[in-house]
Amino acid sequence: MRILAVGAHPDDLELLCAGTLIKYSKEGHTVVMAHMCNGNKGHFTIPPEELASIRAEEAKKSAEIIGAEIIQGEYPDLELGIDENSKRTAVDVIRRARPDVIITHSPDDYMVDHINTSRLIVEASFIATLPHYKSDYPAHNVIPPVFFMDTLAGVNFIPTEYVDITDEIEIKEKMLLCHQSQYIWLRDHDHIDYVDFMKSLSKFRGIQCGVKYAEGFKQYQVWGRIVPRRLLP
Ligand SMILES: [Zn+2]
């Protein structure tokens, strides 16, 4: 299968679903990691343009660990609206990746870039199959099932499916640590240990399903998106 995971910012996938992506990749599936925004406002002292290029490098390094393809986001943070341009961008992400399964943010997540990414990707994954909708890439031939990944800190999110990531937690940590600009910034400025934050949520989801570490998901349940077999690893 081809798996497309789309976060709003360059480090969201590492925080919320990288264990599952590692597992997919170990099983021989093709993984594409994408983000919609360039992460240019995730720091108070590094100027936005410089930060965007640092974060693109960090995302690339992380994706390389599991041999995932990367699609870098161009939207400045907090400028991703729901409009014709952003829809077309989302359609192109899907047409480039040609996924059988999509993972993206929950519509109930904590900030607008995450919420808009969720809505754009769900809408675009339908639009991407319409040949008369013109964009830079040819139409995709699958309306893929969508899984919403956990919210930040699991707030307002009750998973319906779990993936055991006990054997993947170390690589997940390694991927997250590629995002050094965020790790150091959050540690020094907000006194948040990024790795501990990620591991605590993975542990909490693990407790819920009886393993050491897990990731939780909710499937987008509408007609045309449901298949009678498990798609998560
Ligand atoms: Zn984010």
Describe the model.
The termini are close together. Helix 3 packs antiparallel against helix 6, helix 4 crosses helix 5 (112-127) and helix 6 (169-177) runs antiparallel to helix 8. This protein has 233 residues and is of the alpha/beta class. It has one domain (2-219): Rossmann fold (3-Layer(aba) Sandwich). The mean pLDDT is 96. It contains eight helices and seven strands, in the order E-H-H-E-H-E-H-E-H-E-E-H-H-H-E. 42% of the residues lie in helices and 14% in strands. The chain has helices at 12-16, 18-26, 48-65, 84-97, 112-127, 169-177, 180-190, 194-209, and strands spanning 2-7, 30-35, 69-71, 101-104, 146-149, 161-164, 214-219. Strands 3-2-1-4-5-7-6 form a seven-stranded mixed sheet, with helices on both faces. Bound molecules: zinc ion. Zinc ion binds at residues 8-9, 12, 114.
Descriptors:
7 strands, seven-stranded mixed sheet, 233 residues, 14% strand, alpha/beta, binds zinc ion, single chain, Rossmann fold
Numbering strands along the chain, what is their spatial order in the largest sheet? 3-2-1-4-5-7-6
- Note the run of SSEs as H and E: EHHEHEHEHEEHHHE
> What is the straight-line distance between the termini?
11 Å
Inertia-based shape: globular
* Mean pLDDT score: 96
Number of helices: 8
CATH level-4 homologous superfamily: LmbE-like
Number of strands: 7
Strand content: 5-15%
Largest β sheet strand count, sense and barrel closure: 7 strands, mixed
Name of the CATH class: Alpha Beta
Contiguous uncertain segments of 5+ residues: none
CATH architecture: 3-Layer(aba) Sandwich
Q: Could you tell me which ligands this complex binds, including any ions or cofactors?
A: zinc ion
Radius of gyration: 17 Å
Q: Which range best describes the helical content: under 10%, 10-25%, 25-40%, 40-55%, 55-70% or over 70%? A: 40-55%
Q: Give the count of structural domains.
A: 1
CATH topology: Rossmann fold
Estimated structural class: alpha/beta
